[in-house]
Specification:
Layout lengths: L1 H19 L5 H10 L3 H9 L6 E3 L12 E3 L4 E8 L2 E3 L2 E3 L4 H19 L3 E8 L23 H4 L5 E3 L7 E3 L8 E2 L11 E5 L6 E6 L1
């Protein structure tokens, strides 16, 4: 049920960014995405259509402090992550730390097992400013510029496919956008988590919803 509420929200977010940045170059958009947006921006955009029904928590990483979006009247709880290049002490890192993403997938899987399927969701968004998804999420078995693919990780993202065993050859399966997909990862029970990918090659922003 929760996915039905989120579909229109995601489409509006993408349309808004497309209109806002239709005359902005890719290099400019990289800077904008890295300096002008935070996870809190995505939380607010995603939760806005719920109006007064929603409460927001942006107090950090602890689930004990509350989920990013809570719609109490519907018993909805939503975790949100904005993937981006981020500033670090050594410069700009190119991919999100896997443990942070895995933590939210684990939370979703545990909630589904507890009987909350259809009432919990994990939403991931990112600006479409790099060539490959593997440039913003660690999908390799090790470090380096072109590591071998870790298929346990890649299995979380059914909108991807690979043409070799190197992360540089992971591509978007745009033909599967806007369809309900099954997440097939060895980390999760097969078929327990569903996914929908929102995006086209020309869209400046992409979203994946897991529930």
């Amino acid at each position: 049920m929760i996915d039905k509420y989120l579909v229109s929200n995601c489409l509006f977010i993408i349309d808004d960014f497309n209109e806002r940045y239709k005359n902005v170059s890719n290099e400019e958009l990289k800077i904008i995405s890295n300096t002008e947006y935070s996870e809190a921006d995505m939380v607010v955009r995603l939760g806005y259509p719920f109006r007064q029904m929603a409460t927001f928590n942006m107090q950090g990483k602890s689930k004990e402090a509350g989920n990013d979006i809570v719609v109490k009247s519907k018993d909805f709880k939503i975790e949100v992550k904005l993937l981006r290049n981020y500033k670090s002490s050594t410069g700009v890192a190119n991919s999100s730390v896997w443990s942070e993403i895995e933590r939210d997938f684990s939370w979703l899987s545990e909630e589904i097992e507890r009987g909350f399927k259809g009432k919990r969701a994990f939403v991931v968004g990112w600006f479409n400013v790099v060539e490959r998804f593997s440039q913003i999420v660690q999908l390799g078995k090790g470090r380096g510029s072109t590591p071998d693919i870790d298929h346990r990780r890649m299995g979380f993202f059914p909108f991807l496919y690979n043409i070799s065993e190197k992360t540089k050859d992971i591509k978007y399966k745009y033909i599967s956008a806007y369809e309900e997909l099954e997440v097939n990862s060895l980390y999760l029970n097969s078929g327990s988590v569903k996914c929908m990918f929102f995006g086209a090659p020309t869209d400046v922003f992409h979203i994946a919803v897991f529930w």
